[in-house]
Amino acid sequence: MGGILYWIIITIVLADFIFGVWLQVLSIQASKSPIPKVLQGLYDEDKYARQQEYFRINHQMEFITSSLSTIITLAFFAFGGFAWLDSFSRGVAGSPVPTALCFFAVIYAANWLLSLPVGAYDTFVVEERFGFNKSTPKLFILDSLKEFILMAVLGGALISLCVWLYNLSPRWFWLIAWGAVTLFSLFFQYFYSELIVSLFNKQKPLEEGELRDAIESFASKAGFELENIYVMDASKRSTKANAYFTGFGKKKRVVLFDTLIEQLSTDEIVGVLAHEIGHYKHGHMWKGMVSAIVTNLLTFWLFSLVINNIHFAQAAGCSEPSFWVNMTVFSLLLSPLDLVLNVVSNIISRKHERQADAFAKKYGYGKPEASGLKMISSQALSNLTPHPVVVFVEHSHPTLAERVEFLEND
Predict the structure, then answer these.
(1) Cα–Cα separations (whole angstroms), residue 281 to 47, 195, 249, 357
(2) Burial of 193 by CB count in 10 Å (0-12 exposed, 13-18 middle, 19+ buried)?
(3) Helix (H, G, I), strand (E, B) or coil at 145
(4) Total structural domains in the chain?
(5) What's the pLDDT tens digit per position in 72-95?
(6) What is the residue range of 165's domain?
(7) Do 324 and 104 meet the contact criterion of CB atoms below 8 Å apart?
(8) Using CA atoms, how far apart are residues 186 and 289, in angstroms rounded to an integer?
(9) For a tag site, which of 129, 224, 285, 305 has the least CB within 10 Å?
């Protein structure tokens, strides 16, 4: 059975790679299509040529990255990499929790080291070439180290907790661990801006003036209690603009990138924020959280069925099952289900985006939001002609053309 699982995993890894390449090919073909009528004039001839070059280079990088990841994964299975790492971790640590930490720490550290040159090339060659990069080598290194430490601490804590709970109660581990992880996630959702964002960016309250007055006036008209409007110094890394809504209860806040304030008019910014407030008024955040919680429950339950399966360990070249090896094999076998769940999630997300657009339009900010979206997309050299299949599988938002056509029509 272990041998059959081995070939199933190899097939899944290869199929995932081939499917990704197929989507990339579709994207490249669609990128050469005529610009939709509703978006014509967004790029002049020179800028459109730059957009096409930027799009092509990003897809080349994506192909190289996914190819390397696939090759490394296949090599680990073919040459007993997981079996060696399992033996090494047991020898170094001994007891289950430290062994699991050692096993996943090596994988995470190797991944991090391999991603560094890719990230550096993307930031200081690609993004620099097209005028987006504002980061410095010092800031890039600091960001990378902070991300490494943050993920090591949080990931290590969660892994330690799950392994400890499994040893404490093997039968009900999946349910207890799911509850603990859910509480952990809700805590960080509540304090995200204060605990996570503040490690990388400064956030200061939006100053009194025309923009704040316009935002507060709309929020009052829409029946949205708004106490916290912050501006984030995104410009120290990139020229790209955005805004987002985070937190809930007393911790909810609107965050504007300083680049957004520089690039958009007051009405356009309020239009973009009207969309974000629309998400809140429709309860999309809570629906997303409930969906994630239910998905996690299903995942924990499925994992509990195979956590001690010897065939899973044998598929990775190991002689005995363990939490860490079986979890690794399980995550790879789960990828087809993940794909299906992601497609369903994106279908729901696109529906929510349309509802949020309708909310902004209802309050008279349809055209300003459309204008703001076009400006953001133009400044970011966004692709205006994504392939319908790629949109269906990967996109959490409707196409820009679809959104602008809806928002601009009375």
Answers:
(1) 37, 25, 13, 12
(2) buried
(3) helix
(4) 1
(5) 999 999 999 999 999 999 988 778
(6) 1-410
(7) yes
(8) 9
(9) 305
